[in-house]
Each structure stands twice: as C-alpha cells, then as structure tokens.
Predict the structure of UspA domain-containing protein.
Amino acid sequence: MIGSPSSKRVLVGTDGSVIARHAVEWAAAEAARRGAELTIVHVRPGSDLDAPRLPALPADTDIAFARCLAWLNEAVASAVQAAPGVEVNTALVRGDVTQTLIAASQHAELVVLGARNPNRITGLLPGALTVSLIAHGHCPVAVVRWAAPRTRPPIRGPVVLGVDGAHAEAAIEFAFDSAARRSTSLVVVHAWSRCLLNSRWHNTVENSATEVVDEVIRTVLTDRLACWQDKYPDTLVRMVTLQDKAVRSLVEQSRQAQLVVIGSRGRGGFSGLLLGSTSQAMLHRCACPVVVARAPR
C-alpha cells in the first residue's frame, strides 16, 4: 500500500520530465486547497522494491534506482516550492503501473497525471492505461494538460463542468467544490442534439424551435443544480446550453478556463454525451487540466 489508509491525500506520478514536474506542482497546489497531504509516486515494472530478502541488484539496476530516487527528490523540491505548507511523501514502487495506482487510489481523494502532447499521456501512464485508471480507480483522476506546453497550466479563469442527463453527480460535486476552493465561477456546459433528445423524449422535440428546446434544458439543469447552488451560495454559476457536439463545446470553453470537470459512467465508458472518442478527445485536446469524476460503483 502507498502511504497510510487515509483519503485526505492527493497522489501524483512522476517520471522526471518537465511535464511531470508541472503535474507535481499542480497537485501540490491542489493538496494545499484541500488540506490534504501529497504523495509523489514513481512505479517501475517488477516486484516491490520494499520486499524483504531481495537479491543483490546489478550495477545498471543500482543506477536506475538512483535515478528514480533523484526524480522523486526533484519532485519534492518542486512541490515544496509550489505549496510550502503541504506535507509531502514519496513512494518508489516496483509492480504493475495500472494496478498499483488503482490500488493506491483507494486511499486518495484525487490522482494526478501529466499529459505530454495530444498523442501521449505521461507522468506515469500512456493514454490507454490512463483510461483504465479512470474506469477502475476509486477516486477522480486529473490529467494536467494545457494549450502552451512551454508554460505552466493556467491558474486563472472559471471551472468548467460538462454535464449530461445522467451519471453526473460526482462531477457536479467535484466542480462546485473546486470552484469554491479557487474562489472562481463555474460554467456549466450542456451540448445537445435533436437525435439524442428525440431518443430520450420520444420524438417530442423533433419540430420544436431551438430556442424552446434550449429553454427547457436550462430549466431542467437549473432544477438539478439547485441543491448544489444552495450548498455553495457564493459560487457564481453560468450556464451554456447549445446544439453542438460535446467535445467541441468543452474544448472551446477550456481555452478560458483553469479546470474542466467531466463525468464518467464507471467501468467501460463515459456517460451520456461523453462517449468513446469524445472522452478520449477531452483527455487529448483540453486546453487546461481536466478531471474525470467517475460515478460511485
């Protein structure tokens, strides 16, 4: 197990890269907002480094081990600089990367990974394994990406929430909480299509004017978010409802945001509008860090 059995922990992966360092800094700031400890982890294939009676390691393995320790030490320095008051722990583990992080997520309130470019997610995981962690992990997963790789992730702008008609409560809660902790506004985005609505509402919107459909959707969303608005009365909420594709709408909103939050159905796929390639596109095209909050099992 990585760390003590406490959920007041933000877990972040590192591989010694600049991108991973930015993810560590972002995770440290997030841990500070949450009053949580930060655990920085590096996972190498093989058996647990802490297992007793390990045979003597060959010289090249000693060098690799020292390099991993150096990465962790550098990450700690970056975390302390980004959030001086946060308690920072490290873990150097040998094992299956995905299973290690899935297990560790049981004792965390957020797992953070760094995104290298539109074709590869790094920090610890390639894209396919990141999706596996999102689908099978036990807490929300943040992928720290942004539009200009030579700069740091944005720290200004609203939190954007992508919401559909179902399985979004975990994302709604995370988004409201994140906006409140950042003292910023929340933009709620719902993109709709007549085809999808007709399948849900038995073709009753086929001949309705776009403005009428939009107003109905806004009313439904307002009712759905009312309890969260009551819980976070100081958070300004702005709704964006439009007839469009979800990914295009969210990517556009992400260009002015500091965080995007989307929901997940759970094992094997994303809910409602965030299906298949759309979910992958958000992980690869979002112009700011993106959090996927999976519905409880």
